[in-house]
Write a structure and sequence with these properties.
By secondary structure, the chain is α/β, with parallel strands linked by helices. The protein has 2 domains: about 260 residues, Rossmann fold, CATH 3.40.50.10540; about 80 residues, formyl-coa transferase, domain 3. Helix content is about 35%, strand content about 15%. The protein has 17 helices and 13 strands. The strands form 4 sheets. The protein has a 6-stranded parallel β-sheet, sandwiched between helices. A 3-stranded antiparallel β-sheet has the order 9-10-11, covered by helices on one side. The protein has a two-stranded antiparallel sheet with strand order 3-4. A hairpin with a 2-residue loop joins strand 3 and strand 4. Helix 1 packs across helix 7.
């Protein structure tokens, strides 16, 4: 795939990405996919720790190419006054700052929101922390896995007779990144499209991103006192639901989230009798016999191969999928048709495959315009062209390790 020059709906928006690792940088990447100019500000000689997180191949961190695409990299030491001065100059020419320092850090350095707003009253700042900018935990260090536990999410996952389990990848960070992108475009819309629109900062926390999705826990506990315990799959919502093993040894997942869907499943199973049987005829009664209902479905699934089952349930309109590995994904025609995996040029690995752009816009699609940058790759471009610094000044900044 050649890099696309399409700019997308956020063309003309300039974002300073001061953040590191996953949550906030992922949000900035999503904005970059849709045309925003994202300038990633990194410490000289160090850079974003994500550059060096595994997995690795030939000495290259393999998370970096997909995470930091569509960004420009400059190095800037914000501990030094000259570094802060350059940041202030960049802020004066930018729309947004995205940061995830611990609460109060930028204020301590003299470049907090109120400081930067004096330079650029229209500035939008997205602030990402583990626990938010306020409250008794606001100054605690916050990483995704502890925040996931704090949100109540981890408590739900695992088997009742074993310890709770955390997600096997940085789920909370990525979910928070989506909130970052959502907050960014919402704040920009308010600033640019409302009569009294103005810049503002948005307070995003890791734990709240997960907690917001669990309304079923909150109201249930409030009204009934129920503490939902962990289970290895869907439970307490619909029956049948879960993982089932086919005749040819393939794991599939099947769920019936409405009585209409169960009606279609019952017909596919030739078990129309369950539709009038008072033990099974509605979701509420099926839930009281969850294991029994799942057992009936499990016994039936074992009589079909995966392909037979997929064909039959697709024809009947029952949601079902094989549980895919990444190998399965790489060969699936739906992923190919949607360009969910694309191959791009890499300066040292030759080519690499990374996720495609989602969602799909009909008129102003996003694009991958460049691979993730090397550390400080765009120093000269930004300092010379954007800030109009001369060669001597830039040389002095390099000598002082400001950049």
């Amino acid at each position: 795939m050649k890099f696309n020059k399409l700019r997308g709906p956020l063309e003309g928006i300039r974002i300073l990405d001061l953040s590191t690792v996953i949550a906030a940088p992922y949000g900035a990447t999503l904005l970059g996919d849709f045309g925003a100019e994202v300038i990633k500000v990194e410490m000289p000689d160090v850079g974003d720790p994500l550059r060096n997180l595994g997995p690795y191949f030939k000495g290259e961190g393999l998370r970096w190419p997909g995470m930091a695409r569509n960004k420009k990299s400059i190095t800037l030491d914000l501990h030094q006054e000259e570094g802060k001065d350059i940041l202030r100059k960049l802020v004066s020419k930018s729309d947004m700052v995205i940061e995830n320092f611990r609460t109060g850090t930028l204020e301590k350095w003299g470049v907090g929101y109120e400081d930067l707003k004096k330079i650029n009253p229209d500035l939008v700042m997205i602030r990402v922390t583990g626990y938010g900018q306020t409250g008794p935990y606001s100054h605690k260090a916050g990483f995704g896995t502890p925040a996931t536990a704090f949100s109540g999410f981890t408590y739900l996952h695992g088997y009742p007779d074993r310890p709770p389990i955390s997600p096997s990848f940085s789920l909370t960070d990525y979910v928070t990144g989506i909130y970052v992108a959502f907050a960014a475009v919402t704040a920009l819309y308010h600033r640019d499209c409302q009569d009294e629109g103005t810049g503002q900062y948005v307070d995003v926390s890791l734990y709240e991103s997960m907690f917001r999705m669990m309304e079923f826990l909150i109201t249930d506990y409030d009204q009934t006192g129920t503490i939902k315990e962990r289970s290895p799959g869907l439970s307490g919502h619909s029956a049948p639901a879960g993982n089932f093993l086919t005749k040819d040894g393939q794991w599939i997942i099947l769920v019936t989230s409405s009585d209409k869907t169960f009606e279609r499943l019952a017909k596919a199973m030739s078990r129309e009798d369950m539709l009038t049987d008072e033990r099974y005829h509605t979701n509420s009664v099926r839930l009281t016999r969850f294991d029994e209902v799942n057992g009936i479905v499990s016994d039936w699934v074992k009589t079909k191969t995966k392909d037979e089952l997929q064909h039959l349930l697709d024809e009947c309109g029952v949601p079902m999928s094989q549980i895919y590995s990444i190998k399965d994904i790489f060969t699936d025609p739906q992923y190919n048709a949607r360009e969910n995996i694309v191959e791009v040029e890499h300066p040292r690995l030759g080519t690499v495959k990374i996720p495609g752009v989602v969602p799909k816009f009909s008129e102003t699609p996003g694009s991958i315009r460049q691979i993730a940058p090397d550390l400080g790759e765009h120093n000269d471009e930004i300092l010379k062209k954007l800030l109009e610094l001369d060669e001597g000044t830039i040389a002095s900044l390099k000598e002082k390790k400001v950049i």
